[in-house]
Write a structure and sequence with these properties.
CATH superfamily of one domain in chain A: Transferase(Phosphotransferase) domain 1
Structural class of chain A: mainly alpha
Largest sheet of chain B: none
Shape of chain A: elongated
Strand content of chain B: under 5%
Structural class of chain B: mainly alpha
Radius of gyration of chain B: 17 Å
Oligomer: heterodimer
Number of helices of chain A: 49
Radius of gyration of chain A: 43 Å
Distance between the termini of chain B: 50 Å
Number of strands of chain B: 0
CATH topology of one domain in chain A: Transferase(Phosphotransferase), domain 1
Largest interface: A-B, 63 and 56 residues
Shape of chain B: globular
Mean pLDDT of chain B: 70
CATH class of one domain in chain A: Mainly Alpha
Chain lengths: ~1100, ~190
């Protein structure tokens, strides 16, 4: 086709479009065959396209929508909305404001020159609303009214425009009461009411003959004069029917113009086709009210959505029954006693309404336009038949009527969910209506499924984007909505199990996203049962099983989670779907479950396979591929394989940076995660840099109050805290807390977390009272959110316990720890992994509280739980073993400790690999034990191993590497290898100073032990320099005592025995008290004192008075 | 910012004066701005925001154009270009989505997955773009109207103002385009 020819075809098409089908055929017959064929094709295509949702965007636009959003021409705000009364407009003087409607202000006015009737109503378009659309509508009204001359329609006198360009109308000034007022105050009988109503009907019929539909008939638009003449006002929203198609009396324009919901029929309320049937419906409602004194529906309390649903779907109560119920909620205003107002007894009125009148009214307000009276005259005729006591046409709803009702039933699922959407996204409502509009003619069975799918997708997308972290105080209402929706789905969709299952699945996914696992779980169980019974789609069942597996996993029900995931995997396999996305999902979830079960050997290949499958399905930069990579990285990180984890994480970050650009939320999230990784690996400087980067991007992308920004601030605060930069930490943590409190309120887990972190800082700053307040607040939040008996409450109790422990209230600490433990046992059962964690923690308290003996059984109990729940291969088992070893070690049970350590080391190497942070720790501990046992070469080998592993895991510049160097140096000193000892001390000292700051306790440690080496090397002056620096820094009481002992030796070397003696002997007593008589450090201090007495025998106390605290006891 | 503002107003004027290169520069600038806006809107996930293409276009205009320039013709041209760029963005996005679905190709992802302007299937958007290319050979003005309406999200009345026509004419053109496009789809589907 060429452009010219297209123009011709187009013109014929456009002309034909405005014609009824018969004329279209005539037109086509006059055209050349090929042109006619093309025009015909376009006409058919146009008709079909109206049923295609994709093209709905091209429907004639709803101009009201435009008014609602920013108009292209901003409204003029310079003028007041109303004109002053007393001002003149043309030949009229404004006297008073009669009323103000959606479109304009109505004034009472009088004609200045009084050429004819002086009193008029003058309607001026409102300021601020004068879009072209409204102006056009207004002009429309003026023209229509000018054409309509009828005794019962208010006539128009004049029209014009105000000085500032607003059109106005001058109308007949009707003095009277509204329809209902007139009838009720005048106590009109049923017959009188019907006669009055007939007059109204005839007026409306007259307008319809002039191709005008009123569209907004209501009591307020019908005034009755004192003479009993009804007058119809305000044809403001009327539209002229197309004069060419008078006989069809339909218009095919979608309108959504002003209307009053109580008098609007289903098709009007949905924004569907406006026809004369709309007026018939409104008249039916008026008649309903005139007769019974009640409205058919109770609408005032309803939300927009419920209103639509009520009008479109709920069944109507007969007027007689509604009257008999006499409910205040449906009684029309001003009507106190309907029967008396109709001069009848209640019983008689009820009987009068029963039968024909009920049927006539119900026919007029039928939900389907085609079931109503064909015209207003048909309605009026039937009423006259009733008044004449002839048989009426209206009958009780018949079977066909009920069958037709079925055709609207499938809309219900859409309606159910529109309720949620209405409150969150206005635009989805528009979509909902659009779908309804185009859906009507479609094949029901197919549509049901399609609609459900659409609803499902829509909902998920809505709620995925509104997780509690982002819902800003909306979370409770969202949950309310969900709960309401859950009830309705269960109650209303019993006859559509498939659809119900799908919607329940959707709801369950939303609950999962919100973290409401306990609600999601039974819903999912129900869906699974339904699908199993119906032998439904296996793919669907597999998906549901997977979500349930995830929920169970998050709840800690690992075995059940595993069986669900396995069933899903079997379903996939049975279908040969090894390469599907669902199969990859199976791997992914099962991997997480195994990881949680501690079966990392099983988990790792699954993580790998999930990734491999997704890589095979999707391109390398696909979101799911990146998610899988991310999960694998997290897994490896947890396993202590920091190098590989970080490599993968960096890979994810690189890809996302390339694909999404720098300023993207996911890219910021990657920076955040990588920061967390670097931090764990001790690289606080890169962590800080990455956290800061994430913060900056988020500040750019998000609102200043966005919770993701608070996350960054909180993490930076915690980082500063661990760097002991307390003032900065306080600034960040306070800001994070303030933001979270403002955003989430004081009843959100994130707020509780911030309170907790800030409290930790306060503990470090020794602001114990403030710390306690915050811990308590966090506890309160958690108790409110999760109940008094919840693991996270237990976590808060643990923190409070830690605080009490720090404050020295060991009894209270113990009781809190005990409560936390009891809670966990009660809530999670005595064998839950978390119980082991608590036992473990309590044991560490006991160790700190110098109740090492009491710690040992706790650790053994924890060990039993670990063994039972996780098996001996689980890394946590090895961790507890390690701590038991440490406990035995500090209890002086060296011989028992050694095999425990060795066992721990073997398990940890098995779990985490030989090159892991955990392995290094055990090497280190074992070395300490060996050192204490005097196995110096073995200890040296172990320390070297620890150092080697840590350098591989952390790189050279890490505090833990410095610690290993320090420990090795002490051992080398002890072994007489002084020159290497000095090198290692120096390296440790440099690293610690750089990484931790000059006054850090660990620096003090190295200074002291290095001074000890200098003492051995007779370099006393150098030793003194180190020790004076050490005393200027911070140190715990143990180190303080050790350094005093070393300084004593230095002073002795410097020939200052009088200063040396008290230091040496006091330190010796102190250390013995702190660590036990046979501790390595005690023995060293005693040796120093002994050396001193050898060098300065005069200072040796009288042997008879000797009460040496350092005597060996065994 | 000021230089960009100056640029776009100057570019609009240059283009109207017949400078074809100005149009290329204009389109590139508008395209970038719309993409950035669309992305940041989605990223922000602000409460209650309804991501309408018209809002995006308006925002882009406010950002790019010199606010002293009150020439309606400039603005109308801007809107027409912006609608065309929205078409390109959405089509690119749909292509990318299809590509991801089918797992082939190497073109970089232009926007985030959650980009959800009009809720269409990506296949449909790609087909529509092709159909519009075919229609443009017959009636470019009609295509411009469809772009404003479909991709720009403007109402009939607004489209009428932008293309300097009446609302009724716009609606007639849209009806014809709709019929032609649908017939084109049907023909493609039978092929």
């Amino acid at each position: 086709m060429d452009p010219d020819r297209y123009q011709r075809v187009k013109q014929y098409f456009q002309r034909a479009c405005d014609m009824p089908p018969a004329e279209q055929q005539e037109l086509l017959a006059t055209l050349a065959e090929d042109v006619a064929g093309e025009v015909g094709t376009m006409l058919a295509a146009f008709k079909c396209s109206r049923q295609d949702a994709f093209f709905a965007v091209l429907d004639p636009s709803d101009e009201k929508e435009q008014a609602a959003r920013a108009p292209l021409c901003p409204p003029d705000h310079d003028h007041p909305a109303q004109l002053e009364t007393g001002s003149r407009l043309g030949a009229y003087q404004l006297e008073s404001v009669l009323g103000e409607g959606g479109m304009g202000v109505v004034y009472r006015a009088s004609r200045v020159d009084a050429a004819f009737e002086s009193q008029v109503a003058l309607k001026i378009l409102k300021r601020g609303m004068d879009t072209n659309q409204i102006v056009a509508r207004f002009k429309n009204e003026r023209q229509i009214l000018a054409d309509l001359h009828h005794a019962n329609i208010a006539t128009i006198h004049d029209g014009g425009s105000t000085p500032d360009g607003r059109p106005y109308l001058v109308m007949e000034w009707v003095k009277g009461q509204t329809l209902h007022q007139y009838c009720d105050t005048g106590r009109l009988t049923i017959e009188q009411r019907l006669r009055l109503f007939l007059d109204i009907c005839r007026a409306v019929a007259f307008a319809h003959r002039h191709l005008v539909v009123h569209r907004d008939l209501k009591p307020g638009n019908i005034l009755v004069t004192a003479a009993g003449v009804p007058k119809l006002l305000d044809f403001g929203i009327a539209k002229i029917l197309n004069p060419d198609r008078e006989q069809r009396q339909t218009i095919t324009e979608f309108g959504s113009l002003p209307m009053t919901p109580a008098y609007a029929g289903p098709e009007q309320i949905r924004g569907g086709t406006i026809t004369t049937a709309c007026d018939i419906y409104a008249l039916g409602v008026l008649l309903y009210e005139l007769l019974s004194g009640h409205s058919p529906y109770q609408l005032d309390q309803l939300t927009p959505h419920n209103l639509v649903q009520t009008i479109c779907e709920s069944s109507v109560v007969k007027p007689s029954e509604q009257f008999a119920r006499n409910a205040a909620t449906t009684r029309i205003s001003g009507s106190d006693n309907p029967a008396a107002e109709r001069r009848l007894s209640g019983k008689v009125l009820h009987r009068r309404l029963q039968g024909d009148l009920d049927n006539i009214v119900l026919k007029a307000i039928a939900k389907q336009p085609e079931l109503r009276y064909q015209s207003v005259n048909h309605l009026a005729d039937d009423l006259e038949r009733f008044l004449d006591a002839r048989p009426v046409l209206a009958r009780a709803p018949s079977l066909p009527y009920r069958i037709r009702k079925f055709s609207v039933r499938y809309r219900r699922p859409l309606a159910v969910f529109a309720a949620f959407l209405a409150l969150t996204f206005g635009f989805t409502i528009a979509l909902f209506f659009q779908q309804q509009r185009t859906a009507v003619e479609r094949d029901l069975a197919r549509r049901e499924r399609d609609n459900a799918k659409q609803v499902t997708d829509l909902l998920v997308s809505v709620f995925e984007s509104s997780d509690p972290a982002q819902a800003r105080g909306q979370a409770p209402s969202a949950v309310d909505l969900l709960n309401a929706g859950r009830g309705r789905v269960a109650a209303e969709l019993t006859d559509q199990p498939y659809l119900r299952a799908q919607l329940q699945f959707t709801l369950a996914k939303v609950y999962r996203s919100l973290g409401h696992f306990d609600t999601a779980r039974p819903l999912l169980a129900e869906v699974i049962q339904t699908l199993r019974q119906s032998n439904g789609e296996r793919e669907f069942l597999a998906q549901v099983l997977l979500v349930q597996a995830e929920v169970l996993w998050r709840k800690g029900a690992y075995d059940q989670a595993e069986s669900h995931a396995r069933e899903a995997a079997q379903l996939c396999a049975a279908q040969g779907g090894q390469t599907t996305a669902t199969a990859a999902e199976c791997d992914s979830i099962l991997a997480e479950i195994h990881h949680a079960q501690g079966r990392d050997q099983a988990a790792e290949p699954l993580f790998q396979r999930a990734l491999a499958r997704r890589r095979a399905l999707f391109p390398a930069n696909h979101a799911l591929v990146l998610t899988s990579t991310n999960n694998l990285a997290a897994f490896l990180f947890a396993r202590g394989d920091y190098a590989r984890a970080e490599e993968l994480m960096r890979q994810v970050r690189r890809t996302r940076l390339a694909v999404l650009g720098h300023d993207h939320p996911l890219v910021a999230a990657d920076a955040y995660n990588l920061a967390a990784m670097r931090r764990r690996q001790g690289d606080d400087s890169e962590a800080e840099q990455l956290f800061t980067e994430a913060l900056l991007v988020r500040q750019k992308l998000f609102d200043a109050q966005h919770p993701a920004i608070a996350d960054c601030l909180n993490s930076l605060g915690v980082l500063h805290y661990s760097q002991r930069r307390y003032p900065q930490a306080e600034t960040f943590l306070r800001q994070a807390l303030q933001m979270r409190t403002a955003f989430f309120g004081t009843d959100h887990p994130a707020t509780a977390q911030s309170q907790n972190d800030l409290a930790n800082l306060f503990v470090a700053q020794k602001k114990f009272a403030e710390a306690q307040t915050l811990y308590n607040q966090a506890l309160t939040i958690r108790e409110q959110l999760f109940g008094a008996n919840h693991p996270s409450v237990a976590a808060s109790l643990n923190n409070l316990a830690g605080l009490q422990q720090t404050r020295g209230n060991l009894a209270e600490a113990e009781s809190l720890f005990g409560r936390a433990l009891a809670m966990r046992i009660e809530h999670l059962g005595p064998l839950h992994p978390d119980v082991a964690v608590s036992l473990h923690g309590l044991a560490l308290l006991k160790i700190k509280a110098n109740q090492r003996k009491a710690a040992e059984p706790l650790l053994r109990r924890a060990l039993v739980i670990r063994k039972k729940t996780l098996g001996t291969d689980h890394p946590h088992y090895a961790t507890v073993l390690n701590d038991l070893g440490a406990c035995l070690y500090t209890n002086g049970k060296y011989a028992e400790a050694e095999p425990i350590y060795r066992q721990s080391l073997a398990r940890i190497i098995k779990s985490y690999g030989p090159t892991s942070a955990q392995a290094a720790t055990v090497h280190n501990n074992l070395a300490g034990l060996q050192q204490s046992l005097g196995l110096l070469p073995e200890a040296e080998a172990s320390y070297r191993q620890a150092l080697h592993v840590r350098r591989q895991v952390y790189g050279d510049a890490h505090a833990k590497v410095a610690t290993s160097r320090h420990n090795l140096a002490v051992l080398l000193h002890e072994s007489g290898l002084w020159s290497e000892a000095e090198q290692q001390f120096q390296a440790a000292l440099d690293q610690r100073r750089r990484l931790l700051g000059p006054a850090h306790p660990r620096v003090t440690d190295t200074l002291g032990d290095m001074a000890d080496l200098y003492n051995s090397q007779q370099r006393f002056s150098a030793a003194e320099v180190l020790l004076l620096e050490a005393f200027a820094g911070t140190a715990g009481p143990r180190r303080q005592a050790v350094n005093q002992s070393i300084y004593g030796a230095t002073l002795a070397g410097l020939d200052r025995p009088n200063q040396a003696e008290p230091l040496l002997s006091a330190a010796c007593r102190q250390i013995s008290k702190q660590r036990g008589a046979n501790h390595r450090r005690t023995l060293r201090a005693a040796a120093r004192l002994e050396a001193f007495y050898s060098a300065f025998p005069d200072h040796r106390p009288n042997p008879s008075a000797a009460n040496t605290p350092f005597a060996r006891t065994h | 910012m000021t230089t960009i503002q100056k640029n776009i107003t100057v570019l609009l004027q240059q283009w109207q004066a017949g400078d074809k290169h100005a149009l290329d520069a204009l389109m590139a600038t508008v395209y970038d701005e719309l993409r950035v806006l669309a992305r940041s809107r989605l990223a922000g996930e602000r409460k209650n925001h309804t991501l309408s293409p018209t809002a995006l276009i308006n925002e882009a205009y406010l950002k790019l154009a010199d606010q002293q320039d009150t020439d309606w013709a400039n603005r109308a041209h801007f809107f027409a270009i912006a609608a065309k760029m929205m078409r390109r963005i959405l089509t690119d996005y749909a292509r990318e989505k299809n590509r991801q679905k089918r797992g082939s190709g190497q073109a970089p992802l232009s926007l985030d997955e959650s980009f959800d302007l009009p809720i269409h299937k990506s296949d449909d958007l790609v087909s529509l773009d092709e159909a519009l290319q075919a229609l443009a050979a017959l009636d470019p003005k009609q295509v411009a109207i469809v772009e404003l309406k479909f991709y720009g999200g403007f109402t009939d009345q607004e489209v009428a103002r932008i293309v300097d026509s009446s609302r009724a004419t716009v609606q007639r053109e849209i009806s014809a385009a709709r019929a032609w496009l649908f017939a084109y789809f049907q023909k493609q589907a039978r092929r």
